[in-house]
Design goal:
The chain is an alpha/beta fold. The protein contains twelve helices and eight strands. It has a single domain, classed as P-loop containing nucleotide triphosphate hydrolases (Rossmann fold), CATH 3.40.50.300. The protein has an eight-stranded mixed β-sheet, sandwiched between helices. The termini are far apart.
Amino acid sequence: MDRILSREAFQQEQYNQMDKLKIGLIGISAGAGTSFLAGCLARYLANTGKHSPTVAELGKGSLFDSYGMDKRFAGRQYFRFYQALKENKRIRGMRNPDEGINWILQSPGERGIRLSFEQKLRLVNHAMGDMILCDLSGEQAPDYELLQNMDRILAVIDPMPSKMLGGYEILSNLKLLETEQNDIIFVINKMNNGVNRRQMLQFLNIRKPVFLPMLNPECIYTAEYNCKIPYTAGEAKKVLQLPLGEIAAALFC
């Protein structure tokens, strides 16, 4: 009987893992906007009413302070996933819901915690929600093994020439990964009139990227001063809604 129950529990865990889409977000250079995209895409998906997205920081997190999580969760408990994993405590079924999103972010007291590969997989596989947006930004070297465990990959690119040159090695490695999985979605962030589109695409040599327009910096500052996700602040939604819809559609191809 115990063996049967154990097998059923294992099958249920496999089902739970299959019933969600694990999406790895990685920038080819520092400051490409990976965390920005993770938060805005999560808000877009939550707005559709069809998805229950999770944002999980698997690199060096920065969104806890940017989104004012201390104020959002004032008077209610914020579950510290990283501390729980460090202490080998239960995380299944735990969540931090706000604005229709489950937030798995590094709180200030958890900044020094570095999770192992196995702990990161456990975090992703046990995260509640059907769209798990895994922010891998902030690490010195991309974790390609972790990316290979994702169902989809979003590669974020800053079109500044120096940024593209600096990220060429990572871009090349991602292309090799793409030949194995064929599911990488390239996102050109901060697209603006100063970018030479022809030269940029010739250098990158990627297929059908999604272009995310550069926001007025005032939108970013306004959002953070008001503890909001940029997608909900000012005119950002009008500018970002269409390209975020393209990304969402591409995730389900």
